[in-house]
Amino acid sequence: MEKSPLVKEKLIEQLRHQIHSLQTDQLVKIPSERDLAESFDASRVSVRAAIKILVNEGLLVQLRGKGTYIVPSVLLDTLYVLCSRDIKGNDPFYTNFLVEITNLAAKQAIKISMVNPEHPMESSIPSPLVIIGQIDDVTLDELKAASGQLFSIQRYAHRDDIIQIYFDDYRIGSKAAKTLYDNGHRTFTLLGGPDKYDSSRLRKQGFLEYCGQQGVQVQVITEKMNWEGGRRAADTLLSSGLTDAVFAVNDWMAAGFIQGLRENGYQVPADVSVIGCDDIPLAAQISPRLTTFSLDAKHLVEELLSAIHRNISNQTDSREQIVLSAAYVSRESVANIKQLRE
């Protein structure tokens, strides 16, 4: 005698059938887990497991804080991606982003086509075109004329003709300053990169403005945003006098800075607290583990593809901006001075 399918498998088939019946050329929100559990007379655990499988199949997409949606029927077969020449091949954030967008696009039967940043206009570039990193305005205008709608995961504050999805770098800097201040620190140093990079400039701005509101002076050291830049920053800071709290605008600088301190006989967080940003794998591997901010590349990709689908189905305009929050990751590189003094 045949065994009946498992409850979860039955539920998946029922949901899959309902998805196909409701699928249109637009995003369609499905009911909550509770409502689905009542509708199908199943537990919420089973519903949650079934949804996870259908998300992995590319039939559903979960947008944080908004719910779960049915992926539109195929309106898009190829997604064009252009990486700025400034993007390094080993940059962990952008590498992770490219992995996530490739995986999610594959689930939705979308091909990824990389555009040559050296000669972008040599190729026919239909819309949508995703820009990664910073591109000068002249090139952006040419790309827009050739492609139509542009999408960026970098903030272009002076442009309202590009759909932008990006993390709130200003808030990252402000949160880093507040965290250090709330832990009792009062002498601060900022390790920043060149202001031409929006992420560095905005993190620096958020940090400095919060410190200014608290009447805290900040020493600013500008270096290359890599390991060696962080090590050089350690030498610079030690020559002028060590402060008790440091915010580095990325984790590579923070890790190099910690190494530079260690080579000179100083310890983190005993002598100085350190916060980085990006939550690269190294941040959880160095000693002490680095307090940082996590930029969820998968969430970014989900929001990006959702915006692309909405634009194709005429549900949005070229001025849309989606600002994402980075998650604060507390680890051992920040000391609580208030507790140590008690």
UniProtKB/TrEMBL annotation:
InterPro entries: LacI/GalR-like_sensor, Peripla_BP_I, Tscrpt_reg_HTH_GntR, WH-like_DNA-bd_sf, WH_DNA-bd_sf
Domain of life of the source: Bacteria
PROSITE patterns xref list: HTH_GNTR
Phosphoprotein keyword on record: no
Keyword entries, A-Z: DNA-binding, Repressor, Transcription, Transcription regulation
Every HTH gntR-type domain range: 5-73
Name of this protein: Substrate-binding domain-containing protein
